[in-house]
Specification:
The complex is a heterodimer of chains A (about 325) and B (about 450). Chain A has about 325 residues and is mainly α. Chain A has 15 helices and no strands. In chain A, helix 3 packs antiparallel against helix 4 (about 80-90), helix 3 (about 45-70) packs parallel to helix 5 and helix 10 runs parallel beside helix 13 (about 250-260). The longest helix of chain B is centred in the C-terminal third of the chain and has 18 residues, at about 430-445. Chain B is globular and about 60 Å long. Classes of the chains: A mainly alpha (about 325), B alpha/beta (about 450). Bound molecules: iron/sulfur cluster (SF4) (2 copies). One iron/sulfur cluster binds near residues 379, 392, 423 and 426 of chain B. One iron/sulfur cluster (SF4) binds near residues 381, 391 and 426 of chain B.
Chain lengths: ~325, ~450
């Protein structure tokens, strides 16, 4: 045996789980694949265009922001890509590409890097981007397209702008947001045959992805259960359309499984996650039933994001062996 | 009331009811390298290095000089206070040096002929020995906790007027890779039970428990068999989870009692000892044998991983060689297990009383240092922390030098299990920061 060996000396633990930010981000992206496929199935190239544009916009903005801030460039870690995809899924298929790209730039630059980058942002970046698009281009964003029954194979490659015109084949009917409409079959909403934004159409695809993340332990069940549960209870008590309509309408499934559960912008304590989820549910119902916004998911989550530091502070778990006067 | 978690673990076709604490993690265990290998006596070392400060408390004082001849089991270092321990010659031979090394003093003995401790006396009836006598035997034999902490054992059973109801033997062995406690319980079950009874008697406890994780069902069955007639001894199957063998976690799992923050098990009438310590107590009582050897697991990137009984002070180089040498290029050598063990810089270090294993990790296995990323608030560290702390917050407070915040967030309750660092996807050295935070709080308390 050699006499001299070159040994590393460092403090323990000497093993790690091998878990990484990359793995978490790409697993969430994987869980969004069913929803992306559903959106492509129903909206065809319009969906592809938006997803690609938002992803590239987000990654590009991340790159530029990190260069400008002089911090290491980490565009490969999947977090910007995830923001881009999530943003795309909140947009209606008819939205002009340039608006979507602007949204992704705002999402990453204002939603994330202004606060100090990954881990420091208070608001869910994708929702910041979506809020921007909603406020800046209100008209464009409320154009909802009922999806086609079958994917349309475009036989010619069309310029991005041209796609929309060429979609006469898809039978565009501009209509008000479906939330304001009566009589959409719950089943249609469940499988995705309703108008809406890319990721809002198929609850089934979103639930599949959400269950996968629950199974992998990448999201805490308390948030979706608190959120969906409180919406179900409140709309049963107060609403005229019944809980099923509200659960499957709009972006609630996307919000409950993929947005409200964002690690960075939700509480770290278990109790806090209950409060967060239920708080989102209450705000959503108030907006939907009593407000002017047909779509409350966005603002319910952004509002609750604001309360996260306070929620965390007041829901500290009891330390092992600690005796509390009122505990 | 908070209930402890009771789970069912499937083993073959039998379902075993297991107990556990809340939270914790599931690291890769890697115990199959050695868990079926019987304990064997290691070759006798030609030279041993004995550290006078290898236990917790004040270091022993050398009572020999260079040139002295000593016989196996002679006292060479004397305890210097209540929390201190004697040290004995682990081989016969000549003291070659008493030297200062870094911050500890070592006694070196060179020996020639091999000699084993005589162990053929009949078992003594515990009825015939008083509690006081047992404590004295433990103290004289220099026995310390063999689980890794090396806390002098006589101190633990000196109850100082406090009532002790339960003695728990820790057979959880939750550290990955290590299997020496497993083999000890399986092969020396009667010594374990006898030692438990002796510890119960010396502490004045009526009930005895042995907590064993259910990945050691054979040991559980063996202990059950040996202790069948003892109605006051219970073998408790525990869920396989890290750090199940943490003193406070073990007590919570078995008795559903929490050691108060900042307190000791004794405060709630409990004494916890390692199963190996119980065997050492048995041997001290029956054979007058001081702590001159202990079992440990040599494992990881060596060609023939084994469980060995080795003389205290044996250089780790000898033991690695005895286990077939390095497999591949060694990157790290750890005394203890991978979660709480200490990385070594030299192969000349001698095994000490608290060394439960020698783990070699190859160059490929030690992950390249990854730069820490920002915390993504995934809460894995919080959900895993057995002390129910907020590791991510503690690390930030330590970085910001916020001593008040550290105290408010109970930094001193951290048991340094390393679970937080293990699970962090952002590669943050949480435990390193928390240790710094603890030191800051302790420094402030000393000032006041
Ligand atoms: S904070 Fe301390 S007790 Fe908690 S997981 Fe980290 S090392 Fe273990
Ligand atoms: S495990 Fe790491 S990334 Fe996750 S909350 Fe703790 S410190 Fe942050």
């Amino acid at each position: 045996m050699k006499n001299k060996v070159d040994l590393t000396v460092s403090s323990g633990p000497h093993m790690t789980s091998g878990e990484s930010i990359e793995r978490i981000m790409y697993t969430v992206i994987l869980a969004l694949v069913p929803a992306m496929l559903a959106s492509i199935y129903y909206f065809d190239t319009m969906a592809v265009g938006l997803i690609v544009a938002c992803s590239l916009g987000a990654i590009g903005t991340e790159f530029i922001s990190q260069k400008l801030r002089g911090v290491p460039v980490t565009i490969g870690d999947g977090s910007a890509l995830l923001t881009g995809i999530l943003l795309a899924l909140t947009l209606p298929p008819t939205l002009p590409i340039w608006m979507a790209v602007l949204g992704s730039i705002v999402a990453i630059a204002l939603g994330k890097h202004v606060f100090g980058g990954l881990g420091y942002n208070i608001f869910n970046p994708a929702l910041v981007g979506r809020a921007f698009v909603g406020v800046a281009y209100t008209e464009a964003i409320t154009n909802m397209v009922p999806p086609v029954g079958m994917p349309v194979i475009l036989t010619e490659i069309l310029p991005m702008d041209g796609i929309r015109e060429s979609l006469g084949v898809v039978d565009i009917v501009s209509s008000a947001t479906p939330l304001a409409e009566e009589g959409i079959g719950i089943m249609n909403m469940f499988v995705g045959r309703t108008g809406g934004s890319l990721g809002e159409t198929s609850a089934l695809a979103l639930i599949l992805g959400g269950l996968y993340l629950l199974y992998k332990g990448y999201i805490d069940w308390r948030i979706p259960v608190g959120y969906l549960g409180s919406v179900a209870v409140l709309t049963t008590l107060l609403g005229s359309q019944g809980p099923l309509f509200h659960l499957f309408a709009g972006g609630l499934m996307l919000g409950a499984f993929f947005m409200a559960t964002d690690m960075v912008t939700s509480p770290v304590t278990k109790k806090g996650r209950w409060i967060f989820g239920i708080g989102c549910g209450i705000i959503l119902v108030i907006i939907r039933l009593y407000g002017n916004y047909a779509e409350g998911v966005l603002f319910s989550i952004l509002l609750m994001n604001m309360f996260v530091p306070i929620i965390d502070k007041y829901t500290l778990p009891r330390v092992f062996g600690e005796v509390r006067a009122n505990g | 009331m908070e209930l402890i978690a009771i789970n069912f673990t499937k083993r073959g076709d039998i379902r075993v009811k297991t107990k556990t604490f809340k939270q914790g993690i599931h690291p890769k265990y890697n115990k199959d390298l050695t868990n079926s290998k019987p304990l064997e006596k290691a070759n006798l070392p030609k030279e041993v290095t004995l550290y006078l400060d290898q236990h917790i408390g004040s270091p022993a004082k050398a009572i020999v000089e260079a040139g002295d001849k000593v016989k196996l089991g002679d006292k060479v270092g004397e305890s210097t206070g209540f929390i201190s321990a004697n040290l004995h010659a682990s081989i016969s031979g000549e003291i070659t040096a008493i030297e200062e090394r870094r911050d500890s003093i070592v006694i070196k003995i060179k020996g020639s002929e091999g000699e084993q401790w005589q162990v053929d006396n009949p078992e003594k009836n515990l009825e015939d020995i008083s509690a006081e006598e047992i404590r004295e035997i433990i103290k004289e034999a220099g026995i310390v906790g063999l689980g890794g902490a090396a806390f002098p054992s006589h101190v633990k059973v000196s109850t100082d007027g406090k009532e002790v109801n339960q003695v728990i033997l820790n057979g959880a062995e939750c550290e990955p890779y290590l299997t020496v406690d497993h083999r000890t319980m399986l092969e020396q079950a009667s010594e374990v039970i006898y030692g438990l009874k002796a510890l119960m008697k010396s502490a004045g406890a009526k009930e005895g428990y042995i907590g064993v994780e259910v990945n050691k069902m054979d040991a559980i069955n063996k202990l059950e068999e040996v202790s069948q007639k003892d109605s006051n001894i219970n073998i408790i199957p525990l869920e396989v989870k890290y750090p199940q063998g943490g003193e406070k976690q073990l007590i919570k799992a078995i008795l559903d009692k929490e050691v108060p923050s900042g307190g000791l098990p004794l405060d709630i009438g409990v004494v916890v000892n390692n199963v190996g310590t119980a065997v050492a107590v048995t041997e001290a009582i029956n054979y007058g044998k001081p702590l001159i050897e202990r079992g440990l697991t040599v494992t990881g990137a060596v060609n023939n991983p084994q469980n060995l009984i080795v003389r205290i002070g044996t250089p780790i180089r000898d033991l690695i060689e005895e286990c077939g040498g390095f497999k591949g290029e060694p990157g790290k050598i750890i005394l203890g297990g991978p979660m709480t063990g200490q990385a070594q810089s030299s192969l000349d270090v001698g095994v000490s009383k608290g060394t439960s294993g020698i783990l070699v990790l190859s160059k490929d296995e030690i992950e390249d240092y990854k730069d820490p990323r920002p915390c993504i608030r995934c809460a894995r560290c919080i959900d895993g922390c057995p002390a129910k702390l907020m590791p991510t917050a503690l690390a930030n407070l330590a970085k910001n030098d916020d001593v008040e915040g550290l105290e408010k967030y109970n930094v001193l309750d951290c048991i340094e299990c390393g679970s937080c660092t293990y699970v962090c996807p952002a590669n943050i050295d949480l435990l390193d920061w928390i240790r710094i935070g603890k030191a800051k709080v302790e420094a402030k308390r000393r000032e006041n």
